TrEMBL record:
<dbReference type="InterPro" id="IPR011611">
    <property type="entry name" value="PfkB_dom"/>
</dbReference>
<keyword id="KW-0808">Transferase</keyword>
<dbReference type="GO" id="GO:0016301">
    <property type="term" value="F:kinase activity"/>
</dbReference>
<dbReference type="InterPro" id="IPR029056">
    <property type="entry name" value="Ribokinase-like"/>
</dbReference>
<dbReference type="Pfam" id="PF00294">
    <property type="entry name" value="PfkB"/>
</dbReference>
<protein>
    <submittedName>
        <fullName>Carbohydrate kinase family protein</fullName>
    </submittedName>
</protein>
<keyword id="KW-0418">Kinase</keyword>
<feature type="domain" description="Carbohydrate kinase PfkB">
    <location>
        <begin position="33"/>
        <end position="290"/>
    </location>
</feature>
């Protein structure tokens, strides 16, 4: 009997409060900000929701507080089909709350990070789940914040899990340098690639990452599409031109959709095009979960652009 293929996303959800502005004000000027909604946010939870929307068995493994906002996160993710069996509520934990201001489709994000979080360790049950996962999706900040994070992710990788990491939070410090070799698939946008590479040539640095253990390096480049590097091939994939309403969560949608493609056995090029289409469709929707939809919707979007 074939073992179930599931994904575990390691990270904690937060709350995004959305506002619209007529224009971005100068410093010291008062302006009316009109509230337009509250959404579940967070890099990892957004990606997790996208995967669950496609029907992939996806767990979110993390922590949230016991406040109404925390319950909102929990209830919303459950309703979206995310398996919350490994998720914990703790009164000593403070969820991240972001205020997002939209002006003509572009957004400015104010991230409210608590001064101190209640740190936790992976439990024996969570470790067993991680070691049985086909894919683990997370960020370096999330893993670094877990007391036994490095050891457990290394163990899960040794058990056969493919570790996928969004490098948006990458900093060129000693801690992140230590965690970098854990990454099988590196997702990074072009801006953060400059931080990751220290300004080195893209091709040369990606080859270095692959020589040091990465299986794939996937670079997103906005309206220019992006590039995928593996030990056997290098290719660029196109973007899908759309009028953006809200770009929040586009990267999370791309990454999750790429992982879904791999989970379904797509070749790298097909997975990249599917992910690019999903991300492009996502920015035409409002909210960080604009990418949450079913596979058929993304395929219809691709076909409207002449892609299969």
């Amino acid at each position: 009997m074939q073992k179930e293929q599931y994904v575990i996303c390691v990270g904690s959800g937060g709350v995004d409060n959305y506002f619209t502005l007529s224009h971005w004000p100068k410093l010291g000027v008062q302006i009316v900000a009109r509230p337009i909604g509250k959404y579940v946010g967070g890099l990892v939870s957004n990606a997790c929701n996208v995967l669950a929307g496609y029907g992939a068995h996806t767990y979110l493994m993390g922590m949230v507080d016991t406040t109404p906002d925390g319950q909102f996160v929990l209830d919303t993710l459950k309703a979206g089909g995310v398996d919350m069996a490994y998720y914990r509520q703790d009164k000593n934990y403070t969820a991240c709350v972001c205020n997002i201001y939209l002006v003509d489709g572009e957004r400015t994000i104010f991230v409210g990070i608590p001064e101190e979080h209640e740190r936790f360790s992976f439990t024996p049950e969570q470790i067993e789940g991680l070691c049985g996962a086909a894919y683990i999706y997370t960020t370096l900040d999330q893993i670094e914040g877990i007391e036994n994070g490095y050891e457990v992710i290394a163990k899960a990788k040794a058990c056969g899990a493919t570790v996928c990491v969004d490098m948006e939070s990458y900093q060129p410090d000693e801690i992140h340098q230590k965690y970098l070799p854990l990454c099988d698939i590196i997702f990074v946008n072009d801006h953060d690639f400059e931080v990751l590479s220290g300004g080195k040539d893209e091709l040369i640095y990606c080859k270095t990452l692959l020589e040091n253990g990465a299986k794939l390096v996937v670079i997103t480049k906005g309206s220019k599409g992006g590039s995928v590097y593996s030990k056997d091939m290098l290719f660029d994939y196109p973007a899908f031109p759309v009028k953006a309403i809200d770009t929040t969560g586009a990267g999370d949608t791309f990454n999750a959709s790429f992982v879904y493609g791999l989970l379904q056995g797509m070749c790298l090029k097909k997975a990249a095009v599917f992910a690019a289409a999903a991300a492009a469709r996502a920015v035409t929707q409002l909210g960080p979960q604009g990418g949450v939809t079913d596979v058929a919707t993304v395929q219809d979007f691709m076909q409207s652009y002449g892609q299969q």
